[in-house]
From TrEMBL:
PANTHER family membership: LIPASE 2 (PTHR37981), SGNH HYDROLASE-TYPE ESTERASE DOMAIN-CONTAINING PROTEIN (PTHR37981:SF1)
GO molecular function: glucan endo-1,3-alpha-glucosidase activity; hydrolase activity, acting on ester bonds
Matching SUPFAM superfamilies: SGNH hydrolase
Superkingdom of the organism of origin: Eukaryota
Species this protein is from: Aspergillus fumigatiaffinis
A biological-process GO annotation: lipid metabolic process
Signal sequence annotation: none
Pfam entry (one): Glyco_hydro_71
Name recorded for this polypeptide: Alpha-1,3-glucanase/mutanase
Length: 773
């Protein structure tokens, strides 16, 4: 109980089975301990363990303890739950009337709609047991949304669990559910879903591997009774997961949380998935009418890391044959909060060292006591997970930069005068969204125009890593080609980024995440409302009819040529993503009154792609050629067509004005790294910002490097048709000045369609809508 209170847990659910001889003594002991500590307890009557509870026994327990000082109450009434018990729903009509309890059962086996009607609507709210993902998908809020909609204002208790694996043949249980990123993902979903209650499954259910309490060898009887082939809990602590709870619990309850200790938490399976036999374990379970898979096809051999940080930090992992810089997959709004990442093991084994570092050096260096190997007990893979943690004490308490209520899509809600349009619709697009990140979740949860009869979406390119490919292959500046981030030691190059993108697209999880998102969108409107989802693919960027090099779109003086091979490779990525989008659509369950349609607008861009012959007699040398008016070649504003602002398409005689400008910005080597990968930056993550910071930091301690940069960045050597760039040192800062039309501050808009490109996309959507009516 002390450990639970340290984790900011409010109460324990006492899951009690009917007829167990130890119930009376253990319940009395629990309330004695809770009263001595000021902790709370409530009953969860288990109707599945030893069969149904007798109505009189339930009544007597609630009457005996419901008004105990340690019993958890809600709005002045004893809070009571169950695990199943749908056949005894009518018992609760009398129990509620005689005890005055607040009743929130788990009747998940019947689904939200039926459960709410059982016992004549006796439930005051509902608890769902659906805390784990299906197949290879990451966790979604689809089931939560169904409860929320059905309850229509009544309280909902949302389940959160870190893991699931059981191998107890004596109980006819031997399966796992994908849980890789679950502890991070689920809490992010809680923060945005904001249910009335959250129940963590579980504190000490060792048989199903989802315990967050300490190991206790006096509670391992399930492995003997359940005929387990081995004890898959022994030496497998999960305590580290609790380290994050004070922050997420306080944020959930109060909208914000302060902390004075930075935390690193890591978890991974100690054995590679294919090293030993699977023990007959399945991924998913037919016992719950699920399609079963082999575990090796569902789980990932990865190291998972979540870190509670007061400001951005770099993550490195020394493992196997080398040290690896690992980019964060998720960063918190404003840079303060929980960061999350994972790294593939790639078949390697051994011990590992995980480090967090900033400019001042390493502040957390953690050597987990558990390594990764190919050795298994009884030659059976243990699908349970090992969890460890390390901390760093701060000199002061860190408040959050934003309360939860103000954490919206800070990376941009789009541009333009949407309020001035004639049509009534919600624009919820958020730049940089991934299929399963919190920005996408927030967009869906912000959807309040539930009378909408259709929606459009384009997503998948960010998941595939389009921006990294374009930066490395098209905009690639010097000092960066195969050097990677200065702090990480990772190697990035054009062919490498293309290979990375191909691997992501080919991964079954890519298609699964798309399907899950489409399904979630389709299930938001009321069930009897007609609703259609139109999903756009991506347009190829380059024309490939011209076999010769067609110029360059490079931003600095080193400008990679646009070869035919490079154009074909990048176009191929967009076609591969489009194919996966169509597969994902085919996997969606289309219920009555729903439809989902793929929108192919790629052919409409023929004649308007980069490198299209005939747009110019010269190779691409600047951003004002007509071909560029359909895509942004770099960060830029829309160019006005003089006299034709409202006409589309422009005539072939349209002239394109060149906007002259001179501006400067400074880069402080002492602080610039703090702003890299800042989730509060509208252009994050921005590779050019990384480059300027890299040069400033190196120049601060390397005079010859600073001189070389200044020499290179002169009007003579850095000049192009786009303008000039100069770099000088003023005081302790590097000052970068642009003149002419150069625009190298950031790269967020690269290769996104401009208005003319979006007009083609709009035509595609309109044609699809009209053909479906």
């Amino acid at each position: 109980m002390n450990l639970a209170m340290e984790a900011h847990i409010d109460a324990f659910a006492l899951n009690i089975a009917a007829g167990w001889v130890g119930n009376d003594a253990q319940i009395a002991n629990a309330f004695t301990a809770a009263n001595s500590l000021g902790f709370k307890l409530f009953f969860s009557f288990d109707y599945a363990g030893n069969g149904p509870w007798a109505e009189s026994d339930v009544y007597n327990l609630i009457r005996t303890y419901g008004w105990n000082a340690a019993y958890y109450q809600y709005n002045g009434a004893p809070f009571v739950s169950t695990f199943e018990g749908t056949d005894n729903a009518n018992d609760w009509i009398t129990i509620k009337a005689e005890t005055g309890c607040f009743f929130m059962p788990d009747w998940s086996s019947r689904g939200a709609e039926v459960a709410l009607k059982l016992g004549g609507g006796v439930a005051d709210g509902l608890f769902s047991w659906a805390a784990w993902a299906w197949g290879s998908w990451n966790m979604t809020t689809y089931v939560d949304a169904s409860y929320n909609q059905t309850l229509n204002g009544k309280p909902y208790m949302m389940p959160v669990s870190p893991w699931f694996f059981t191998n107890l043949p004596g109980y006819k249980k031997n399966w796992l559910w994908r849980s890789d990123d679950l502890w991070y993902d689920r809490w992010q979903q809680v923060l945005y879903f904001q249910p009335e209650f959250v129940e963590i499954i579980s504190w000490n259910d060792f048989g199903e591997s989802h315990y967050i309490g300490p190991l206790d060898d006096t509670q391992y009887s399930a492995f003997t009774i359940g005929n387990a082939p081995y004890n898959y809990v022994e030496n497998m602590p999960h305590d580290g997961w609790r380290q994050l709870l004070p922050y997420v619990v306080d944020t959930y309850k109060n909208g914000h949380a302060a902390f004075d200790t930075e935390v690193l938490v890591t978890w991974y399976r100690p054995t590679l998935a294919s090293a030993c036999g699977d023990g007959g374990t399945t991924a998913n379970t037919a016992s719950q009418l699920q399609i079963e898979y082999r575990p090796v096809d569902i789980v990932d051999d990865r190291i998972f890391i979540s870190a509670l940080l007061s400001e951005p930090a770099y993550l490195t992992i020394n493992y196997g044959v080398g040290e690896y810089g690992v980019d964060w997959d998720y960063t918190p709004e404003g840079g303060v909060g929980i960061y999350h990442a994972s790294m593939a093991l790639n078949g390697q084994t051994g011990s590992l060292t995980i480090q967090l570092l900033r400019d001042s050096g390493v502040f957390i260096s953690y050597n987990p006591s558990q390594g990764i190997s190919t050795t298994c007990t009884n030659d059976i893979t243990n699908w349970n997970v090992w969890v460890g943690s390390a901390t760093y004490t701060l000199t002061s308490t860190i408040p959050p930069p934003l309360s939860l209520s103000k954490q919206v899509c800070v990376q941009g809600w789009g541009v333009g005068n949407f309020e001035g349009l004639y049509y009534d619709f919600q624009f919820l697009a958020c730049s940089g969204s991934l299929t399963n990140d919190k920005k996408m979740e927030h967009q869906l949860e912000s959807w309040n125009n539930v009378t909408s009869n259709f929606a459009t979406i384009t997503i998948g390119g960010n998941d595939a890593g389009f921006s990294k490919v374009l930066i490395q292959c098209i905009l690639q500046p010097p000092f960066y080609g195969k050097g990677g981030h200065w702090w990480s030691g990772e190697t990035f190059d054009c062919d490498g980024e293309i290979s990375n993108a191909q691997a992501v697209i080919a991964d079954k999880d890519f298609t699964g995440r798309l399907s899950a998102l489409y399904q979630q969108i389709l299930d938001i409107p009321p069930a009897d409302q007609q609703f259609a989802l139109y999903v756009a693919g991506y347009s190829q960027f380059f024309d490939t009819t011209n076999k010769a090099d067609c110029g360059t779109l490079g931003l600095l003086w080193y400008k990679p040529p646009l070869t035919l091979d490079l154009r074909q490779k990048i176009n191929s990525l967009t076609l591969q993503v489009n194919e996966k989008i169509q597969q994902a659509i085919a996997n969606v369950t289309v219920r009555p009154h729903r439809s989902i349609t793929y929108v192919d607008w790629d052919s409409r861009m023929d004649g308007h792609r980069f490198c299209t012959p005939g747009y110019s007699d010269e190779p691409i040398t600047n951003k004002y050629e007509a071909a560029h008016e359909y895509f942004f070649p770099s960060y830029d504003t829309e160019d006005n067509y003089e006299g034709e602002e409202d006409q589309w398409p422009p005539s072939s005689s349209t002239t394109y004005p060149v906007d002259s400008q001179t501006y400067s910005f400074s880069v402080d080597p002492k602080t610039c790294a703090n702003n890299l990968d800042n989730s509060g930056d509208i252009f994050d993550p921005d590779e050019l910002s990384n480059i300027w910071c890299t040069w400033a930091i190196e120049s601060a301690t390397n005079a010859s490097f600073a001189a070389a940069i200044e020499a290179y960045m002169t009007p003579q050597s850095a000049s192009s048709a786009d303008g000039n760039i100069t770099v000088v040192w003023t005081g302790d800062e590097m000052v970068v000045t642009f003149s002419g039309s150069a625009s190298l501050g950031s790269t967020a808009q690269i290769f996104h369609p401009k208005s003319l490109g979006h007009a083609f996309m709009a035509e595609g959507f309109l044609a699809a809508i009209q053909s479906s009516r």
